[in-house]
Design brief:
- Helix 1 runs antiparallel to helix 2 and helix 3 runs antiparallel to helix 4.
- The two termini are 20 Å apart.
- It is built from four helices and no strands.
- The radius of gyration is 15 Å and the shape is globular.
- The protein is mostly helical.
């Protein structure tokens, strides 16, 4: 179950990162389609993260420290990303921070997944 929740979260991160890539590459149709998926994917990402954590609690002693720490950083990056979007008013700064945190979130999630197999 934890693996399924993690994979659902990963799919959401891929969708959200693809939105970032279509925006900077000016692929208009794909960007519009992914914009419609942006908020639902974000919501599903948070729900799957909460479910992933809840299911993993009994197994925390058997997981590596890297896996635990990277998981905390993935969740923290996602929370900061959403908070920054709602708190920063200047559009240019908001989007720059949003893009940086999106790349960070995807990278940390990739590390978290890699630590699962180490």
């Amino acid at each position: 179950m934890a693996f399924l929740c993690g994979m659902i979260g990963l799919i959401c991160i891929v969708i959200l990162t693809a939105k970032f890539l279509t925006r900077i590459s000016a692929i208009k149709k794909a960007d519009e389609f992914l914009w419609k998926l942006h908020k639902p994917a974000s919501g599903i990402l948070f729900l799957s993260a909460i479910a992933h954590i809840a299911v993993q609690i009994p197994f925390l002693t058997s997981k590596s420290m890297q896996s635990k720490v990277s998981g905390i950083f993935v969740l923290a990056a996602a929370v900061v990303l959403v908070a920054a979007c709602h708190m920063i008013k200047e559009t240019g700064l908001k989007m720059r921070i949003h893009r940086i945190l999106t790349v960070a979130l995807a990278g940390i999630a990739a590390l978290h997944l890699a630590f699962r197999f180490l």
